[in-house]
Structure formats: structure tokens, C-alpha cells
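Example 9 (inverse folding). The structure is encoded as follows.
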């Protein structure tokens, strides 16, 4: 199937990341001239590959979804093909043939019919495929049209923001994306709608520098994951992005970071509400004030804990993020006051599927 494929693609998930299969996947992708997409949990996997497309799904790149949808053979490595990764089935269109690799025999057929299910370690199976192809098929050049689309997609774009009386969260996250070091950033995300914005904008250099505290759609788990990342990567600074309601759920954990003088930077996107729930209430014509949650001054709260605190109230204050990122020792918190009326298009689509 791969030898005769006209538009092969590769989609990798947490199983590929956990097996450390990046060298094998890159080798297969280079031989096929195939682009590589990832699930949310595998963000950054093969990020240095020229045809890395990023996250697939509603919170990822539209180009990734479209490219996977248009392929005729898709190699799925350690990904379950759930509704989030497939953008509710969009990438399964086109009558494509799916070759799925998973170390769990029960993984095949849960979300999509597969042409071939390979029960194996991801690295072992992909290496075997690459070896067999090298014996039978000459390496292919990537599709020039796709290469051009990827290059165009990566170019800086002129964007319009809606700051209102605060700061558009997309503007704030784009500032953070530009301000963080490109090669060694460690990101831990949490926080409902704030996490959605971060997923759409923030990038990561490699899969092992990424974690998402969003299991079961819950919020408030990210701070403990970020603290764990600080202990797992001693001496390296961890950046944790979260929402105000998420941070308040386990705010006492911040004292752990202070007590151990952890190199942790917390960016709180603060709309004084449970943002995603507020957006949902608006769509349902219900009283949006039910989701309001007036918060304390997080910069002062951080100082009270013994950390350094900074505040961004308007776009002119975004330099405070740069000041926070320049701190070398101990925990830091930035309270970014965002315009809570700004909503991603994907937000309501996801909410409808959950309801």
C-alpha cells in the first residue's frame, strides 16, 4: 500500500512519543516524502522534520487536517484516532487506507476501520516498514505544492485583535510565543479556553518538552504537572500557562514551588470567570454571569507566597512578560488580564460535541 500510495501521510500519537520512535518515523517520512502530523499529546514529535505539520484536530492546524484528509494512505503510529485528533472524522474522509500501529491489540477499529492493524512497538514496526520500503521503492520527493503551503502557513500574518478594556488573549499568547526561547522551552498547559488559545499558537521544539493537564476535559491539573516537570528537569525553567479559575483550584500548590525555589514561570490568563463555561452560556442564551468569578490580584498573591509577581493589564504592558521571563531563580507569576469576550471558533464546536 505504501509503495503504491500517491499521497501518503503519517500521524503520530502518544504511543509513538513514549516509544521514542522519532528517528524511525523521520526515516519513513523522508523515504515516502510524507508529511507528519501529531495528536495533541504528541505535540513537538518530529518537530524538526521539514514536513512537520503540527497538531491535527479542531485545536490544531487546518492545513494539517486538510492534508491528512486528502491523503490516500495514512500511517497512524501510536494514536487512537479519537474524535478530537480526527476533527470529528474529517481526516478519515476520502476512502483512504489506514495502516495503524499500536502495542494494544484492542486499539484497532475503535474509532475507524483500518486496512492493516500492526500490533507492535512503534519504533520496531516503523523501522521494519522503512527497511522494507528501502528494498523495494526509491525515495520520493515531497509534493512541491504541500511544501509551498507549509512555507506559506509559517509566514508571519497580519492579525486583528480585540483588546477591549484588557488584552486579547491571542495577542498575549503570540507575544509569549515570540518571547520564549525556541530551542529549550518546556511547556505545561492547562485552563479551558485559555488552553485552547495556547494550543493554537504555542509551539514546542520536541515532544518531551510538552505536557497538557487536560485529561477528561478537566481544568486545574496543570500546576501539579508543572511542579513535577521542575523536579524531573532540575535546573531547567518550566513555563506553565493556565486560566484564572484553573489556577485557583489548586493555588496552594504554588507554595510548594516557592518552598523548593523551583524555576517555574506561571502565566495566568485572567478574565475573572470560568471562560469556556461563560462562552457556552452565551451560546445557550443563559445568564453568562453564572460563570463570573472575581479573582484576587495574582501578582500580589504571588508576592505573598514569596514569589515574584507581574501584571499585564493592556497591550502596552506586555513587556512585563519579558521581565518575568528574564528572572533566573525561583517561581514567577504573570497575571495577564484578558478580554474574556474573545472566543475561538473551535471553542463552540467542541462544546457542542461535548453536550
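The amino acid assigned to each position is listed next.
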Amino acid at each position: 500500500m505504501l509503495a503504491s500510495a500517491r499521497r501518503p501521510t503519517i500521524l503520530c500519537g502518544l504511543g509513538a512519543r513514549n516509544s521514542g520512535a522519532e528517528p524511525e518515523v523521520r526515516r519513513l517520512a523522508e523515504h515516502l516524502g510524507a508529511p507528519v502530523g501529531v495528536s495533541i499529546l504528541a505535540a513537538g514529535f518530529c518537530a524538526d522534520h521539514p514536513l512537520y505539520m503540527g497538531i491535527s484536530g479542531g485545536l490544531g492546524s487546518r492545513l494539517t487536517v486538510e492534508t491528512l484528509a486528502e491523503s490516500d494512505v495514512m500511517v497512524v503510529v501510536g494514536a487512537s484516532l479519537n474524535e478530537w485528533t480526527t476533527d470529528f472524522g474529517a481526516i478519515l474522509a476520502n476512502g483512504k487506507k489506514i495502516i495503524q500501529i499500536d502495542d494494544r491489540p484492542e486499539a484497532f477499529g475503535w474509532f475507524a476501520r483500518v486496512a492493516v492493524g500492526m500490533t507492535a512497538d512503534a519504533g520496531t514496526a516503523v523501522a521494519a516498514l522503512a527497511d522494507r520500503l528501502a528494498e523495494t521503492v526509491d525515495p520520493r520527493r515531497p509534493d512541491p505544492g504541500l511544501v509551498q503551503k507549509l512555507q506559506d502557513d509559517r509566514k508571519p500574518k497580519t492579525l486583528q485583535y480585540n483588546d477591549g478594556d484588557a488584552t486579547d488573549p491571542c495577542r498575549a499568547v503570540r507575544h509569549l510565543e515570540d518571547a520564549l526561547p525556541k530551542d529549550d522551552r518546556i511547556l505545561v498547559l492547562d485552563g479551558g479556553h485559555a488552553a485552547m488559545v495556547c494550543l493554537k499558537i504555542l509551539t514546542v521544539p520536541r515532544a518531551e518538552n510538552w505536557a497538557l493537564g487536560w485529561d477528561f476535559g478537566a481544568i486545574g491539573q496543570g500546576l501539579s504537572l508543572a511542579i513535577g516537570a521542575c523536579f524531573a528537569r532540575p535546573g531547567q525553567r518550566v513555563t506553565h500557562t493556565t486560566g484564572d479559575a484553573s489556577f485557583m483550584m489548586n493555588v496552594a500548590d504554588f507554595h510548594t514551588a516557592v518552598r523548593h525555589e523551583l524555576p517555574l514561570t506561571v502565566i495566568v490568563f485572567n478574565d475573572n470567570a470560568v471562560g469556556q463555561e461563560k462562552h457556552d452560556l452565551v451560546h445557550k442564551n443563559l445568564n453568562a454571569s453564572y460563570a463570573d468569578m472575581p479573582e484576587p490580584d495574582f501578582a500580589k498573591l504571588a508576592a505573598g507566597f514569596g514569589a515574584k509577581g507581574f501584571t499585564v493589564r493592556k497591550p502596552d504592558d506586555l513587556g512585563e512578560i519579558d521581565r518575568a521571563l528574564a528572572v533566573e531563580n525561583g517561581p514567577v507569576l504573570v497575571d495577564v488580564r484578558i478580554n474574556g469576550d474573545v472566543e475561538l471558533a473551535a471553542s463552540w464546536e467542541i462544546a457542542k460535541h461535548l453536550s
